[in-house]
Amino acid sequence: MNYERKVDVMDSLAGSAQDYYDEADSRRKRTRLIVALVLIALALAATYYAFTSIKGGAADSAAAGGEGAASIPNVTVVIPGRQSVQAVISANGAIAARREMPVGVAGEGGQVVSVLVEPGQWVGAGQTLAVIDRSVQAQQAASLAASIRVAQADASLAQAELARAEALVSRGFISKADMDRKRATRDAANARVRVAQAQYAEAQARNNRLNIVAPAAGLVLTRAVEPGQIVGAGSGVLFRMAKGGEMEMLAQMAEADLPRVPVGTRATVTPVGSNLQIAGQVWQQSPVINPETRQGLVRIAVPYSPAMRPGGFADAQLVSGSAEAPLLPESAVQSGVGGNFVLIVDDKNVIQRRPVKVGTITDDGVAIASGLTGTERVVVLAGAFLNAGDKVKPVVQKSSR
Known about the structure:
Elements: H1 2-65, E1 74-78, E2 83-97, E3 100-103, E4 110-115, E5 122-123, E6 128-132, H2 135-169, H3 176-208, E7 212-213, E8 218-223, E9 230-231, E10 239-243, E11 247-254, E12 266-271, E13 278-285, E14 295-302, E15 313-325, E16 327-328, E17 334-336, E18 339-345, E19 351-355, E20 357-362, E21 365-370, E22 377-379, E23 393-397
Parallel strand pairs: 1-23
Antiparallel strand pairs: 1-22, 2-11, 2-15, 3-10, 4-6, 4-9, 5-8, 6-7, 8-10, 11-14, 12-13, 12-15, 13-14, 16-21, 17-18, 18-19, 18-22, 20-21
């Protein structure tokens, strides 16, 4: 009896546990179902919202002026017109003395006693540059000076004898033949005086030529002599001078540009390594063209400046007149495989590519030699981000003057 009751109790407990687990599993399934239904509802709501937003945006775009109107960019353009632009030709070349004077030994030469000037020093015409030893020549000159005095004494004696003979000839003590001989003696003595004076003057002139002097006023460029050096007629150039300190630039120019820069053309010369701008003028054109380089030489005269050193290099800008041409900012001109070009906006506000030839480049902009009439609407900025055929909204900018 007791055993059966225990069995019934155990069965009852087992049944209760099974019911508990079944009920828990049912709750989990209901929870999963509810979560899935909530996610589906959220997805449907999001899809509906996105669809209605796209539809409303399209409607707003259509109402604002047609599909894609909001994406058309604003582009700054300029109408350049035609302005007076100076035609400037660029050239480069070496700097040289306009009139270089090589100075060497003019006399017989000798040993250099002292050198009185240095390169970069200004000297006057006839100023002594170097002194040559003249001790031997000075003694020779002194000897010739003494011979003059001897000849003068002989001439005085001959003149006195002739005077005494003339006093006696009237008395018959002196014959006519003797008188002729005394006159001849007197004339010969006077001639010897003149010969001695000429020899002395020649010696003085040679001695004066011993020193090396400046042939004209100017600037000493180089010095190739030192004290103690023996110099002579074969010593070559001892000093180089620039006459008056005047300089010039030897500009190399293309054959086609030479007719555009006649004598008198204004130029601005800038030595390499310097920001100095020196005003000059073309004073000579080479009459020949280099057959290898097809270039000619233009000589530009410039005043003295410490920055102008012969042998150096310089750039030149030559103004060869003026012409009417469109003037654009540098940002408006682009370069490509086919050369330079600009972007213009046509009557339908569509970008068009226009090839151009660039002329003079100035501080105010780039002159267009050909390709534009000046009435076009030219894109100023953002040209690199635009392509031919793009539609834009042009905003006209006032042309710079």
